[in-house]
Amino acid sequence: MQKLARCLGALLAVLAAVLLATPAVAQGSGETIHGTLTYQDAPVAGVTITVTTADGADVGTVQTAADGTWEVPVPGPGDYAVTLDAATLPSTAPGVARDTIETTVNPQQRKVVLFRVGTPEDDGGEQPAPEGEPSEGGEDETPGSGSAESEAGGDVTATGGNNQLLQLFVSGLRFGLILGLAGLGLSLVFGTTGLTNFAHGELIVFGAVTALLLNQAGIPVLMAALLATLISAVFGWGQDRGFWRPLRKKPTGLIALMIISIGVSLILRYLTQFIIGGGRETYDEYTYQDPISIGPISITPRDLIIMGICVVLLAAVALALTRTRMGKATRAVADNPALAAASGINVDRVITLVWTVGTALAGLSGVFFGMIQGVDYLMGMRILLLVFAATVLGGLGTAWGAMVGALIVGIFIEVSAYVVPSELKTAGVLVVLILILLVRPQGILGRRERVG
User: Which end of the chain is more exposed for a tag (fewer CB within 10 A), N or C?
Assistant: First the structure.
């Protein structure tokens, strides 16, 4: 186990170097431009807003919703021009002070751009940004910075000083909980089979894309999320019964199984690209919400609900592993499959259950990531590195290790934005991972094993 942990740590370092060397604009990390259009404190719906790059290439066109909100995902950090089509304003609105705003989007940032509806002679340009508007950078898993910027007369931050640090902590806690949900299945599959599943990132995307397709078919997002979780569970069950169990019975070596998982990952990734295209898609609900204030913290109701669901599910899995017969059987298989089989435990049934539950949790985490950052075919590749980092840090093969490691990774990534550039947050957590593994190769909650 120690040797494997060291090898995976080295592999993560190599993957991090490759990902950090990739231009951010090439794949994006959840950057969007959004705002709310109002006139005399009333929302203005049906107004066309277009976003273009600095060289004039079209990025996206949307119409403001019934509550005046709009949002356009952008391909990555850079300079953009946001144009409001004044001809689409209702007759009750006299005009707009400025119909084009030039803005710069930073990595993992949701940039607030607000237009001031009024006569063109009005002074001041755009209206001020809503107080407490948080940055909703997606966890690709790298999350966004803890502040929001508006093109309405300068930068505004969600909180200042220690309050900003607290805001970043809450954002990191949200990311860590979703990451824990994503990494739980990966850790349990490794614990029961020894397989390092490089297709796990695509299982996360599978849930997000399934919910997206259901939502585009007219099903509300919440119902689509529930159906996507159930479909993900069936997909996990089908994977194990279809080819992982037959491969185990051959028996196929773990290295060969790992290579097969890489092939499965590539198949699913480019099948997803074929289905939804190369751009970023968003659900038609919960992409933007006004934040609420809880003391010094600003957080959206969507994020509170997501965090609550994650806590309940993680606690339920922990209780199931310790209090139920199947949970105890799962732990027995993870400890010693041969001895578990000799004791009368149906090892194949336990492993199939782990695949089913683990894939369902991964799919639900993908839906949550999709609500925050949108859905694209590369999101699994981006988040897989952090899922591996969390599970290795906490201890491969242990459910509790995956949870603890995910919380540490999520909180560290967000809070580190207080002192380091956002581009270096992922690198920072991987450095911490390597340092911890040098001292404790089995991870924080992993079990030390004798080598040789």
Answer: C
Residue 148 has pLDDT above 60, yes or no: no
Phi, psi of 152 (to 5 degrees): -110, 65
Residue 22: CB partners within 8 Å, gap ≥ 6?
Answer: none
Say how far apart CA 93 and CA 230 lie, in whole Å. Answer: 47
Q: Which domain holds residue 347?
A: 2-24+161-439
Domain count of the chain?
A: 2
User: What is the pLDDT at residue 291?
Assistant: 76
Are 15 and 37 in the same domain? no
Q: Quote the CA–CA distance of 372 and 137 in Å, as a whole number.
A: 8
Residue at which a domain ends, from 73, 92, 112: 112
Which whole-number Å values give the CA distances from 380 to 200, 366, 388, in the listed order? 8, 9, 12
- Taking the whole predicted model, whether its pTM rises above 0.70 is answered as no
**Residue 247 is assigned to a structural domain of this protein:** yes
Q: How far, in Å, CA of 255 to CA of 272, rounded?
A: 26
Mark whether 338 and 377 lie in a shared domain. yes
Could you write out the DSSP letters of every residue in 16-45?
HHHHHHS-HHHH--S-EEEEE-EETTEE--
Q: Which residue has the higher pLDDT, 413 or 271?
A: 271
